[in-house]
Amino acid sequence: MSTPSEKYASFRSDQEHPAVKEFRGLYDFDLDEFQLRACAALEDGHQVLVAAPTGSGKTLVGEFAVHLALQRGQKCFYTTPIKALSNQKYGDLVSRYGADKVGLLTGDNSVNSEAPIVVMTTEVLRNMLYAGSQTLLGLSYVVMDEVHYLADRSRGAVWEEVLIHLADSVSVVSLSATVSNAEEFGDWLETVRGNTVVVLEERRPVPLFQHVMVGKRLHDLFAGEAPTARVGAPTRSGNPAKANAPVKADVKDLVNPQLVRIARDDNRIFRDDSRKPRRRRDLPKGRPARSHFTPYRSDVVEELDAGALLPAIYFIFSRKGCEDAVVQCLRSGLRLTKPSERDEIKRVVAERTADLPDEDLGVLGYHDFAEALSRGIAAHHAGMLAAFKEVVEELFARGLIKVVFATETLALGINMPARTVVLEKLSKWNGEAHVDITPGEYTQLTGRAGRRGIDVEGHAVVLWQPGFDPREVAGLASTRTYPLRSSFSPSYNMAVNLVRQVGRTRARDMLELSFAQFQSDQAVVGLARQVQRNTEALEGYKESIDCHLGDFLEYAALRRRIGDREASGSKRRKLDRRVEAQESIEKLRTGDIIRIPAGRSAGWALVLDPGMRSEREGPRPTVLTLDRQVRKLSMVDFPTPVEAIGVLRIPRKFNPRNPQQRRELAQVLRTRTDLLGEDGPPSRTRGKDAISHADDPELQEMRAQLRAHPCHGCSDREDHARWAERYFRLDRENREVQRKIEQRTNTIARQFDRVCQVLDALHYLEGDKTTEAGDRLARIYTELDLVAAECLRQGVFDDLTVPELASCLAALVYESRSKDEPTSPRLPRGDVRLALERMGSIWRDLSALERDMRVDFLRSMDLNFCWPAFRWASGASLAEVLYESDLAAGDFVRWVKQLIDLTEQIADAAGPTPLRSTARSVVDQIRRGVISYASMVE
Question: Which residue has the higher pLDDT, 270 or 642?
Fold first, then answer.
């Protein structure tokens, strides 16, 4: 029961924030303190950043922005990173406020776009800002859900573009997962957007217990209470610089000792197993069998079901692994649903997929999919058809699906909380190598465990694997570090749009407001402090150097110049001697008697073979020494030039491998050299090192200035000189730090300048204006935007048919998931190949220009989707296209939809030309069957 003071505080809050009070009345539960703080700040006119764990209810703050907009007769945009999440939020808002007040814009769909509340993907809002859309009029609030997507390598820049370019009159509500540098992100938002309140919530709404499954047995990861299992347990986030710091020993000491013992025994058995026979019957008697193993997927599900730990999300970092897991569960006879649940599942599946073409159901695997769902089992990954994924999401949210085998993409965006999360492995394939998941990724994945308002606790289960270290898992489970790092960089499309709108100078200034530049500048702060400390130290050194006779720094600088001059002279002489020595060796002939000046073979020798000149090592003569050894010499043996002091005839049949012949020839050599003495005749080069610098007039002039300087006669001269050396050394270090600062500041602006140089060279820009070609480029949003614009300008697409144009444009959108796809894919014959060759030539020319301008934006074209696009545009069936391409249905649909997006952009950029008509025909031709259905549901 609330105390009188708490009741009074609540009364005062309701008086000061009537909109929050009204909003609270819409819910049958109490709002959390962090939600109330964020809503109150928003009502007070502040912009808000909310960083909170998954499932904590941060989207409620975004819904309050919607409530405020409707209450005040204003407009609110609610943006999400993916279309599926937009559809989900659209449905939520329609059910609360009615279809007449809520619209949807996702690129594919435009529903009630002029409504006061419009849900859209972030890219749609970015494009509206660049186009100056009239829909932006009256906009007062923008909710940016999942704003931490700005760290995404391929799409993250869009979020920063929106935050930078939105009008100052728009209040932004940024909703983020828990990140360890939320304060830094909030500081940037304050800089870019104005007054921003940062609301951090690091406590999980549901306690999370950590487990490890060894065989069929579930073990607690921690001996006592897990750090995440306390009610309201805060996460351990903080300084991003410490994100990769080792976990404190006290956390690892909490690990269940039984798991530590199992790991020790398992590692011992694993080492022994590496040396034992493969066949079990050949095992030596008394050898312990492996009792600790990774459980089968079906066994894991059965154990979770027996322990009342379902529903569960079972993360497998492989699409094929997810599909295989479903098959394994079906073959094991696993059934997790009741008859009434099966009937409801069948009804929902039939209703949601009724519009799918009957002829495509077989190739889509519909019947196996429906059978698995009826048993409460499903997969969820990017390769699935969007309609199938939506069915899985709906049924799982309703508690009808008990286990979903999913890739890590499920951890982002879609609202699918579970009682338990299972991690099959703690490593994943990142496209190039198998890498361990980070503490931040572990937090994101396990954050799904524990349904607020349903579960009293959540559970995270990690499966035992060979080489498993429970202490490392404890480190992942107790370290909450997920630093947000900007992936922003100016693109060609961005550059022409900005220059067209605000001019080059203003565009450059705007880009310097990016989070990427802000983080770079923050990194400079430490360097700036170092410069400040060095500068203060230099002032102290100056006091110690002070001389009553004159300027000692001037005197010391003169001494350094003299030393540098002498050192450089010595280096030049050394180089000259090396060149002279090499030339002298090249003059040697077979039979010459020489004296080797240095090395292990120093002394008299007879040249047996002058050797061939090597570009890297110089000449390598072969000689016979007085001690009867045959040696191959190098330049190391000749620091000074060598001269032949005589010639000795070598017998024609002399064999250097014959000891007797070597002995006889060495004896003749010794007889000849005994007459010359131990040192031999004086060398023309001997004594050169002792030559003074008298022949250097500049050096002599500096020495005269040194002797004439007043400080030359100072009694403390050498003491001052030592301090001067410290001064010059620190000053050199300080200049190096300052150079680093210059390199890190204005990096985005300098990159923008280089992008503009490319566009200037290609005549897309003329000063602060865009050319006709630049206006076309401004309408093309794709990674290969400049290639597409150049192909338009050079007429590559002009005479192509509908299937041919679809095939060529596919090369600009598709990107293989793995490097295993064929490098010489199947291509259509005729004009398509000629067009692709021209496109390849354009790409190579642009890449060369990029190298000259020191930018790198254009990835290689990928031709692996050209044939499927051609066949689909030619009217082939889905079964034929998937069979010929070996693509997953979901992948095929997704790439065709991206192809539709680009084709519509090409039609828009082409203007009133025949190409526009062809491009629109491409869209009509490929938006059919399962693609047409996907456009309706996404």
Answer: 642
**pLDDT of res. 514:** 84
pLDDT of 283 = 42
Contact 451, 27 (CB under 8 A): no
**pLDDT, mean of residues 321-344:** 92
Q: What b/e sequence results for 466-497 when a residue is b if at least 16 CB atoms lie within 10 Å of its CB, and e otherwise?
A: eebbbbebbbbbbbbbbbbbbbbbbbbbbbbb
Q: Are strands 592-596 and 603-609 parallel, antiparallel or unpaired?
A: antiparallel
Q: What single-letter DSSP state applies at residue 281?
A: G
Residue 901: how many other CB atoms lie within 10 Å = 17
CB 760 within 8 A of CB 855: no
Q: Which helix (H) or strand (E) holds 310?
A: none
Nearest CA-CA partner of 756 in 549, 379, 491, 436: 491
Task: Give the pLDDT of residue 447.
Answer: 79
426-431 contact pairs (CB < 8 A, 24+): 426/462, 426/465, 426/472, 426/473, 426/476, 427/317, 428/317, 429/317, 429/318, 431/817, 431/818
pLDDT-derived band at 922, boundaries 50, 70, 90: very high
- Residue 694: the pLDDT is 53
User: What are the backbone angles phi and psi of residue 850, rounded to the nearest 5°?
Assistant: -60, -45
What's the first-to-final CA gap in the chain, in angstroms? 47
pLDDT given at position 227: 59
Paired tokens of 372 = 């698995």
The tokens for 762 are 């290609």
DSSP SS3 for 314? strand
Q: How far apart are CA 849 and CA 397, in angstroms?
A: 52
**What's the rounded mean pLDDT across residues 570-587?**
76
pLDDT, mean of residues 60-88: 88
